[in-house]
Amino acid sequence: MTKNYKTIIWDWNGTIINDVHICVDIANTMLTHQNQPTLDSNKYRNAFGFPISDYYKRIGIDLELESMEVLTKKFIPAYMEQVRNCNLHENIVETFTHFEKTNREQYILTAGHKEDVIELLQYYKIRDFFKEVEGLDNYRAESKVDRGIALLKDNNIKKEHAVLIGDTDHDYEVAEAIGIDCILIANGHQSKEKLIRATNNAIPILDGVNELI
Length: 213
Fold this sequence. Notes:
By secondary structure, this protein is an alpha/beta fold. It folds into 2 domains: about 5-20 and about 85-210, Rossmann fold; about 20-85. It has helices at about 20-35, 40-45, 50-60, 70-80, 90-100, 115-125, 145-155, 170-180, 190-200; strands at about 5-10, 15-20, 85-90, 105-115, 130-135, 160-165, 180-185, 205. The radius of gyration is 17 Å and the shape is globular.
């Protein structure tokens, strides 16, 4: 699946770290506060997407009652309080190790706060697998296209030898925008059905990272 790629660019949330349940819990707290019905993981994974404001509207959060700024200030502390209780996805470390042994360079491109992600990589003892981590300097979970362009340029990455591995249709959009291939793993923040619809089944959509090797 990845034998022709020299550069592996990983998404973080939902692709490496299995943090979906935290995001469901926090969303349900927000929904309960606004007297709205709560979600299960299936409803969450069929609703989640970027921009985050649109996802909030889809699940029933009224942005007239609470602004994105207010919701972000609620989300980030709650997330950071729980994230160290998450597990990494099954077989992920073995996959990193395989790519390392086969001389592939590995990077992370995240819509999360860069310094927070670096801290978590160190906490999970996997920082050394990655040559560079590229992410945002804020908590707005914006598009990471600009950071992807910078990652390619700053590290002299040849587009034809690079692939982005993620778990959402935004990862596909980012890969398209920066001109590299994409493989999606359907065990993160979006369901396989949503990923197939969003990509028109034009790229590989796998059930787990073990299928990458």
